[in-house]
């Protein structure tokens, strides 16, 4: 296997970027965490190739790119099924794929989910900033090399191919278009009436078309909530559910700001953040309130933790 492979972008798709697990420890300076939205899918892609779990991957959103791959390397695809095609034939997902010579990877119709992850057995040759290569739109001038644009070429310092691995269907994430998301009570929940709260937890919200990596915007509750005045800005994190003065509910995601002045009605538990990454416009969400102990138990029982435990014994 040669030492270097090249990924050349023929078409960029809707949004294709390099992401790792983000820039931890800089939120006090106003820098968003960023990083992959579906951590389980990204970590599984890396596991298939023997990479560290937080190794950079290519995050592919809804409409995938057209990529010319030259050189010998090993790749893996996980997450959303965006109809990947390798050299004119349907490409397998959730298993390692050995490539030699010249290859072309394309994507077609989205079947399930919103974001697919492409891992490579080697090191992406792009600059990092604050120990991360993750693309961040608000800092595009700094992170521009991590946005995959038409004509771009990224080189990968490849490693010798790992043994073939695959993840069987029972361990693959369920990419449902209708999800129940568990939340903790937010700091400003007390600012809402009992009727507003009851309606919030009984409403099946619809994901809005203008959702992005900053926020999953929700429709379906606006007419039930009274206007709320903006507050003094306070800290927010991925998973914070804010309610705007117009009554729109939105779930902050990885690229969101670090402070905000909207009412924080709830906080999505860590174990349920990955399903949000795979929701498309028109998909639906319903919320269920839990306590902190249940949130911790859910994290320890998450698919990724169970997967690691099972596969570390083999």
* Number of alpha- plus pi-helical segments: 6
Low-confidence stretches: none
Q: How does the overall form come out from the CA principal axes?
A: globular
Kindly report how far apart the N and C termini lie. Answer: 27 Å
The computed structural class is: alpha+beta
Beta-strand residue fraction: 25-35%
Average pLDDT works out at 93
- List the strand order in the largest sheet: 7-6-9-4-1-12-11
Taking the sheet with the most strands, its summary is: 7 strands, antiparallel
* Approximate helicity band: 10-25%
Output the helix-strand order. EEHEEEEEEEEEHEEHEEEEEEEHEHH
Q: Radius of gyration from the CA trace?
A: 20 Å
What this model shows, in words?
The protein has helices at residues 39-49, 140-143, 194-202, 273-277, 292-300, 303-312; strands spanning 4-11, 15-19, 57-61, 66-70, 73-81, 84-86, 89-90, 96-99, 102-107, 112-120, 122-124, 153-158, 178-185, 205-207, 215-219, 234-235, 240-243, 249-252, 259-260, 263-268, 284-289. With 314 residues, it is of the alpha+beta class. It has a seven-stranded antiparallel sheet with strand order 7-6-9-4-1-12-11, with no helix packed on it. Strands 13-20-17-18-15-14-21 form a seven-stranded mixed barrel. Strands 2-3-10-5-8 form a five-stranded antiparallel sheet. It contains six helices and 21 strands. The model has no long low-confidence stretch (mean pLDDT 93). It starts with a strand and ends with a helix. Helix content is 15%, strand content 33%.
């Amino acid at each position: 296997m040669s030492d270097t492979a090249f990924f050349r972008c023929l078409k960029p798709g809707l949004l294709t970027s390099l992401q790792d697990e983000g820039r931890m420890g800089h939120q006090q300076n106003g820098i968003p965490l960023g990083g992959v939205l579906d951590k389980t899918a990204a970590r599984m892609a890396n596991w298939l190739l023997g990479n560290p779990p937080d190794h950079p991957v290519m995050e592919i959103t809804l409409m995938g790119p057209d990529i010319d791959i030259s050189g010998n390397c090993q790749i893996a695809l996980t997450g959303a099924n965006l109809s990947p095609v390798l050299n004119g034939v349907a490409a397998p997902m959730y298993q390692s794929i050995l490539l030699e010579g010249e290859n072309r990877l394309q994507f077609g119709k989205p079947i399930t989910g919103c974001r697919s992850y492409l891992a490579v057995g080697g090191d992406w040759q792009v600059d990092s900033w604050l120990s991360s290569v993750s693309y961040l739109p608000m800092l595009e001038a700094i992170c521009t090399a991590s946005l995959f644009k038409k004509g771009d070429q990224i080189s990968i310092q490849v490693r010798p191919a790992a043994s073939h691995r695959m993840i069987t269907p029972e361990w693959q994430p369920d990419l449902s278009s209708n999800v129940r998301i568990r939340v903790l009570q937010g700091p400003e929940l007390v600012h809402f009436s009992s009727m507003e709260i009851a309606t919030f937890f009984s409403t099946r919200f619809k994901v809005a078309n203008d959702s992005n990596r900053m926020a999953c915007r929700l429709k379906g509750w606006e007419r039930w909530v009274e206007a709320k005045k903006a507050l003094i800005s306070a800290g927010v994190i991925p998973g914070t559910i804010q309610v705007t003065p117009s009554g729109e509910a939105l779930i902050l995601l990885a690229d969101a700001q670090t402070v905000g002045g909207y009412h924080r009605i709830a906080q999505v538990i860590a174990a349920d953040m990955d399903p949000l990454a795979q929701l498309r416009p028109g998909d639906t969400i319903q919320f269920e309130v839990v306590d902190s102990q249940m949130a911790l138990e859910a994290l320890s029982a998450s698919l990724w933790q169970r997967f690691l435990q099972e596969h570390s014994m083999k």
